[in-house]
Every structure is written in structure tokens, then in C-alpha cells.
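Section 5.1 Outputs to date
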Amino acid sequence: MSMKPLEFDRRYGELDQVISAYAGMPADDEPDRPSDALQAYLRHTWHSRPWALSVAEQQIREYARHPPGRLRLRLGEFYPVPDVGLPESEIQDWLFQLADHLEQSIDDGAVPPHSAPRTHWEWHARFPELGQFLGGWFSQDMPDEFPDHDTAVRDYTDTTDRNLVARLAGELRELLTLGLDEADYAVAVAELGMEVDPPAPYSPSGWLELVSDRLVAFRPDYGPPTDG
């Protein structure tokens, strides 16, 4: 019988966050150097949920000490580590190495400096609503669903909870304050799911600025007033 969500989170929730950071990335951690994937996890988590680092270290070390057998994995009673490109015989040592890196980072108080995200996982962890917006409204199907970019933006604001619209506005401002080169903004929107070009004559950052301004001015339509 598979675990209930609360039990899963208590035992493996933060372990899963760490492993998710390795999606599409090599698990090439060394004793003296965490991989790019783990550095992305450390960078994001130190600045967003620093308390979670010790939870991750504990969950990973406990899992490595007591790896599950095939039966319990099949029953869904343990977290199955996804394929990270390592032989099964090396997974346990790799997990201990991750736990050691996390422990050292905590003990040293080694808070990474703020910077632009450097992995696909980190882009989406830092800008989750922007990823929903760009990936959901500006995929390659956008020209078949909307006549232009402005209509797609209006559809987002008309159909999305206003709290999420406000969150998107904040994420856009945070992205724009990074002051990236234009080529890096092109990479950013692609990583976050945008599969169409910005409308002419806008560059990626210019269009993001335009959308940000419109979201700031956005007022939800609550319908006609009612008598109180």
C-alpha cells in the first residue's frame, strides 16, 4: 500500500526536492565539489527556505543508511530514486556524498550569493508562476488559440485567481531586476516554457516589461455592484 501524502512528506519530501534538481543534469558530485544541480538547490533553498536544508540532509542520510528493498519499493512504501545516470551500486555512496555537502554548507553558513538561475529546475523553482504563465499561454500552440500576445495576456488575467496574477507581477519584477543581457533573457523565457517569439518590435526583456506594467495596472472585474 502506497504512503499517504503526509507520511511521504515527513520522510521523503525534501529528499524529493533535492533529487528533482537533478532532472536533466549529471549527478557528477565530487567530495570537494557539489554538482551544478546541487549548487542550484543550495542557492535557491538558502534564499527561500534555509530551514529545509537540515531536513534534506537528515532525510537523505537516513535513506542512504536504510535503502529499501525491491518489495517495499514495489509496494510504494519507500521513495524510488529516479534514474540519475549512476549505476545502482553507486547510488548509496552518492546519497551520502549529497548529505555531506549539505551538512558542510550548513555548518559553514555558506550562503551562495544572489544570481540568476543556472539550471532548468532552478528557473522553475524561483519563478513558478511565470513558468505557468509562459508555458501555459505561450507554448507553440499559442497562435492557434489566440490572435495575438495581448489577447493571451488578457485571457490569463481573466481566468486566473487575482492572487496568482499578483504573484506573477512580482516574479516579473524580480526577473527584470536581475539586469541580464538580452540573450540571457531569451534563455530565461525559453527555460520557463515560452515557445513563441515576443511580438514585434519587442525584445524578450522589453515584452516582459510591457506585461509587467499591464499586470500592475490590472484590476479584476467583479461584475456589477450589488445593493448592500
